[in-house]
Design goal:
Helix 5 packs across helix 6. The protein folds into 2 domains: 253 residues, Ribonuclease Z/Hydroxyacylglutathione hydrolase-like (Metallo-beta-lactamase, Chain A), CATH 3.60.15; 168 residues, Metallo-hydrolase/oxidoreductase (Rossmann fold, 3-Layer(aba) Sandwich), CATH 3.40.50. The protein is globular, with a radius of gyration of 22 Å. It is 28% helix and 20% strand. Strands 6-5-4-3-2-1-19 form a 7-stranded mixed β-sheet. Strands 7-8-9-10-11-18 form a 6-stranded mixed β-sheet, covered by helices on one side. A 6-stranded parallel β-sheet has the order 14-13-15-12-16-17, with helices on both faces. Strand 7 and strand 8 form a beta hairpin. The protein binds zinc ion (2 copies). The site of one zinc ion has 5 residues, from loops. One zinc ion binds next to loops.
Length: 434
C-alpha cells in the first residue's frame, strides 16, 4: 500500500489523500481549500474561469492522474468523510464515471447546499456507506466510524490493504451532542494501526477545554431570559448540534424558535436520519420566516413548492415585530433585508455562534455593524467543531498507532511535542510506501 497527502499536511481545509495498491487507487476527501498559499482567505470565484489544467498548475486541483472530467478514469473510488466544503468542495471536477462513496445524510446535505447556496457539487455516481459496515473497493477495505463533529454525518475511516492499516480521523471532537459516540470509540477503536492521519485544527490555537453543547445551552438560556428583547442567533444552518441547543434553550425559556426556509428544510430532511426538531405539528413552537433572499432563490429554480410545504408554520415580520421578546431567530447576513422590514426589534441581543475567524469576512462584519446600528448588544457564544487537545490525546491513545501523521492543521510541527507516539511529518505530495 502507498499513499500521499495531496493537500492538508500544512493547512486546514482542502484535504485530499490518495491511497493505492498494485491494482486499486482510491481518494479520501476532495475539499476546497480555505486558505491561499500566503495564508489569506481562499476565494474560488477568482479561479472559476480557469481550465482543469490551469487549476492543476496553480495547485488548486491536486495532480491526480485519471481523476478529472477530461481524462480516462483510473481511480476506483472517492470517499467523502463528511459534508463540509473543505472536504468535498471540488467534487464537481471529478470524472463523472468515478463512484463517490459517502453517508446518505451527507449526500442530502450536499444536495441542499446546491439549492440554497451558490456552491454547485453534483455527484453523478454514488454509493452510501454505513457506520461500522466494512466495504471494499478492489483490494482495499474501508470501515467508516461515525464521529462527533459540527457537521452532521461525519466519519473517520479505517483503511486496510495488503495486511497494513491506516486510520484517517476526518474532522472530529469529543464535546458535541455525539460525545457518547466518541466515548464508545475510545473503547472500540481499531487496534495495531500502522498509520494514524489525525486532524489538528486546534493545535497552535490557544489551548482551552471546549465547552459542551449543554454549556452552550445554559449560556443561551441566560440571554433568552433577559426581559423585553428579541434574540437573534447568527449560526450555521448546517450545525445541527447548535440548532438543537438553540431549540432546547427556547423550550426552557418559553420562546418561539424562528428559522428561515433554508434551516427549516435542512432540519426536516435530516429528521429522517436522527431525532430532530423541525417545523411540524409535533413542534408547534418552531415557526418559519419566508426570508426574501432564500425565497427568490427557490423561485428562480422553480422550487417554490419547497416554500409552500412550510406554509402552515409561517410567521410574518409583523407578528415578530409586534412582540419581539417572544422570539429567538436564527439569522445570517442575507437576512439583513428581512430584518430591515421588522420594526420594533432595536436594542435586542445578537448572539454570534460560529468561529470568530469568520468575523473577518466582509459580509459578516457588515451584518453585525448593521445590527450594532440598531443598538443590538453582541455576544459570542460558541464551542468549536473540532477536538480540543484533550480529545486529540484521547484519539491517539485509543488508536495507539505505530506512526502518527499530521493532517488538517497549520501546526504539524507541534505534534511531536504533544503526543507520545512516533510522529512523521509529511509534505504535500510526498509518497509513503510500505
Ligand atoms: Zn475540515
Ligand atoms: Zn469538518
Amino acid at each position: 500500500m502507498n499513499f500521499k497527502i495531496h493537500r492538508g499536511t500544512q493547512e486546514i481545509g482542502g484535504s485530499c489523500v490518495e491511497i493505492w495498491t498494485d491494482t486499486t487507487r482510491i481518494v479520501l476527501d476532495f475539499g476546497m481549500p480555505l486558505v491561499e498559499k500566503d495564508g489569506s482567505e481562499f476565494d474560488f470565484r477568482k479561479y472559476e474561469k480557469l481550465s482543469i489544467d490551469e487549476l492543476k498548475q496553480k495547485g488548486i486541483l491536486p495532480n491526480i492522474d485519471g481523476f478529472y472530467d477530461d481524462s480516462k478514469p483510473t481511480i476506483n473510488g472517492v470517499i467523502i468523510s463528511h459534508p463540509h466544503l473543505d472536504h468535498y468542495g471540488l467534487i464537481n471536477f471529478l470524472n463523472p464515471k468515478v463512484k463517490v462513496y459517502l453517508g446518505g445524510a451527507t449526500h442530502k446535505i450536499i444536495e441542499l447546499t446546491n439549492i440554497f447556496t451558490p456552491s454547485k457539487n453534483e455527484i453523478k455516481k454514488y454509493g452510501y456507506y454505513k457506520n461500522e459496515r466494512p466495504f471494499s473497493i478492489g483490494d482495499i477495505i474501508i470501515t467508516p466510524f461515525l464521529m462527533d463533529h459540527s457537521a452532521f454525518d461525519a466519519y473517520a475511516l479505517l483503511i486496510e490493504a495488503n495486511g497494513k492499516t491506516m486510520f484517517y480521523s476526518g474532522d472530529f471532537r469529543g464535546h458535541g451532542r455525539k460525545a457518547k459516540m466518541f466515548k464508545w470509540f475510545k473503547h472500540n477503536a481499531p487496534k495495531n494501526v500502522d498509520y494514524l492521519l489525525m486532524e489538528g485544527t486546534q493545535i497552535g490555537r490557544k489551548s482551552k477545554k471546549e465547552k459542551s453543547e449543554s454549556d452552550i445551552e445554559t449560556e443561551l438560556i441566560l440571554k433568552f431570559n433577559e426581559l423585553g428583547k428579541i434574540n437573534l442567533v447568527y449560526a450555521s444552518g448546517q450545525n445541527i448540534d447548535r440548532l438543537v441547543s438553540i431549540f432546547k434553550a427556547c423550550q426552557k425559556t418559553g420562546k418561539i424558535f424562528v428559522v428561515d426556509v433554508y434551516v427549516a428544510t435542512v432540519l426536516k430532511a435530516l429528521a429522517q436520519y436522527s431525532k430532530l426538531p423541525y417545523p411540524s405539528k409535533s413542534f408547534p413552537n418552531i415557526k418559519v420566516i419566508f426570508s426574501k433572499w432564500t425565497s427568490n432563490r427557490l423561485a428562480k429554480q422553480n422550487l417554490k413548492q419547497m416554500l409552500y410545504r412550510f406554509k402552515y408554520f409561517k410567521i410574518t415580520k409583523k407578528e415578530i415585530g409586534s412582540n419581539p421578546s417572544k422570539y429567538v431567530m436564527v439569522v445570517r447576513p442575507s437576512m439583513k433585508i428581512d430584518l430591515q422590514r421588522i420594526k420594533g426589534i432595536d436594542g435586542g441581543n445578537l448572539i454570534y455562534s460560529m468561529w470568530d475567524g469568520y468575523l473577518k469576512k466582509k459580509g459578516a462584519k457588515d451584518f453585525i455593524d448593521y445590527l450594532k446600528g440598531r443598538n443590538f448588544a453582541i455576544f459570542h457564544i460558541h464551542s468549536s467543531g473540532h477536538a480540543d487537545l484533550n480529545a486529540l490525546k484521547q484519539m491517539v491513545n485509543a488508536v495507539d498507532p505505530k506512526t502518527l501523521i499530521p493532517i488538517h492543521t497549520f501546526n504539524g510541527k507541534d505534534y511531536k511535542n504533544i503526543f507520545k507516539v512516533p510522529v512523521k511529518e509529511l509534505k504535500d505530495g510526498e509518497i509513503l510506501s510500505w
